[in-house]
Design a protein that fits this description.
Length: about 260
């Protein structure tokens, strides 16, 4: 417990040191290049007080949720299919790698051309970015199940679906959740990339607008909002994972 508090205090100290360094560097440079933390904080307060940020935050969050939901579902489904079938893995692996080797920002304009400048294009970009990490994690988790456990399930004549649901997915949960955490962070990146290319609303569009107005403080304020959203989403996934582990441990205790 003592080491845990020491780690938290050290982390807090690093944050304070960063703010002090930021303040010092900002005073050496023009406000157009680097505004001070106080100026950025005032911009944040003003934006929330006037309700300026809320429509942009809601738009970005909607794109993130829809893109993450679509990409996560497809990633989990395809990961299970590939993990369960060596044939499918050999057939589709090359194409999946090719789809991920292409920089998303390079094909984002094509998505805008195909799907328009509405929310659909941003959702597709976000889903594509979220798909691969969860698919890879799921396939890896399913293929790394203990052979002894698989043999036990064969002895009790469990079906393939029962083996997947009661053995492979639960035992592979830590690896799958690693893919979920990466997908969650990537979903925010995907939404912002889509908004960079073409959007009138959203935090990415707000960054582009602040650049055009030479409002560096607003740009930093938006970055702070993105950091907070990213941390909140990451924390939520950790909480869900802890809940799943707690329920699993409770089931094992009840069986005993």
């Amino acid at each position: 417990m003592k080491k845990k508090w020491q780690a938290h205090l050290f982390s807090l100290g690093l944050g304070m040191a960063f703010l002090i360094l930021w303040e010092f560097m900002a005073k050496q440079l023009s406000p157009l290049v680097l505004p001070t933390p106080v100026v950025v904080f005032k911009k944040l307060i003003q934006g929330f007080r006037l309700g300026y940020f809320y429509p942009h935050i809601l738009t970005t969050l909607l794109e993130v949720v829809l893109g993450l939901g679509l990409g996560g579902f497809l990633g989990l489904f395809v990961g299970i299919m590939i993990g369960e079938s060596e044939f499918l893995k050999r057939v589709f692996s090359s194409y999946i790698i090719i789809s991920q080797a292409i920089p998303k920002i390079a094909i984002a304009p094509l998505f805008m051309l195909w799907f328009g400048y509405g929310i659909l294009a941003k959702v597709v970009i976000t889903a594509l970015i979220c798909f691969f990490p969860l698919m890879e994690a799921t396939a890896t988790a399913i293929q790394q199940v203990s052979k002894d456990q698989l043999s036990l399930f064969k002895v009790i004549k469990a079906t393939r679906l029962q083996t997947l649901w009661h053995l492979k997915l639960p035992s592979g949960l830590p690896t799958i959740m690693q893919g979920v955490r990466v997908a969650v962070i990537n979903s925010l990146v995907g939404a912002i990339v889509g908004e960079f290319i073409g959007a009138h609303r959203g935090l990415g569009a707000l960054i582009i607008a602040s650049e055009g107005k030479m409002d560096t403080a607003l740009m930093f304020a938006v970055l702070v909002i993105l950091v907070v959203i990213g941390l909140a989403m990451y924390g939520l996934i950790n909480a869900i994972e802890n809940k799943l582990w707690y329920r699993r441990s409770q089931k094992h205790e009840n069986k005993k």
